[in-house]
Amino acid sequence: MNVSGFIVSCSLPKIFKVFSKKVTFLGGASAGIGACVWITVGHGEAYCTKYVYGVGVLMGAASSTLVICSLSFIHDLIGTSVESGAFVYGAMSFWDKMANGVAGMIIQHMHA
């Protein structure tokens, strides 16, 4: 996951020149959904020993793409209003952590 995330994050500036940020975000989300589907349908010995690495590559690439695109969207939101930039980044980070916490609680509640 880390290696594929590093490779994707290094290549994103070139990808942004070819595709828009929204299209790149959509591609990252699609890769993440594809990895989740692969996790859901994967089974057997071959999946557990070989194919799970493909899932890791997709998850790493998707997570790096989504994080970098999200930060880029925040940068675009701030624009030239640099005096409020710290507040915007802080607020977005706070709500990101809140959403992840709520999602984690829902998943735990549904699993138990």
TrEMBL record:
GO biological process: carbohydrate transport
Transmembrane segments: 23-41, 53-74
Keywords: Membrane, Transmembrane, Transmembrane helix
Single annotated GO MF: symporter activity
GO annotations of cellular component type: plasma membrane
Family designation: Belongs to the major facilitator superfamily.
Protein name: Major facilitator superfamily domain-containing protein 12
